Amino acid sequence: MDKYVFFGRKEDAEPIQKYLEELIQYSPEQLVETYNATVETGFVGSRQQARRVIALHNAMKRVMGQSPITILDNAVIVLWERIEPR
Asked: Are residues 53 and 79 in contact, defined by beta-carbon separation less than 8 angstroms?
C-alpha cells in the first residue's frame, strides 16, 4: 500500500479533467495495466502524478464500475496491491 496526501487547488481541476478524458477511452484491460504500472512505481511525490491517479480512479469507476484506488477525506490517495485483469 502506498499513500499520497493531496490538497486540491483550483488549478488542479483542468489537468485532472484532461487526464480523465484520455483515460475513459481506455479499455478495462488498459486501465488495469495503467493501475498496476502506477502501483509498481509508487508515489514519487509529484503533484502531476497525483492528478493522474485521481483521474485514473474516476476513469476506472466510470468504465469498470469500481476502482482499487481509495481517496480518503478527499485528501489521501491510497494505492493498494496490483490487480489481475478479468
From this structure: yes
Q: Along the chain (86 residues), what's the average pLDDT of each consecutive run of 10 residues?
A: 94 98 98 97 95 98 97 95 88
What 3-state class would DSSP assign to 78? strand
Specify the pLDDT at position 24. 98
Q: Is the pTM of this model over 0.90?
A: yes
Comparing CA positions, the residue from 2, 16, 6 lying closest to residue 46 is: 6
- CA angle at residue 16 from 10 to 20, to 5 degrees? 150
Identity at 63, one-letter amino acid code: V
Cell of 33: 495495466
- Is the separation of the CB atoms in 3 and 82 below 8 Å? no
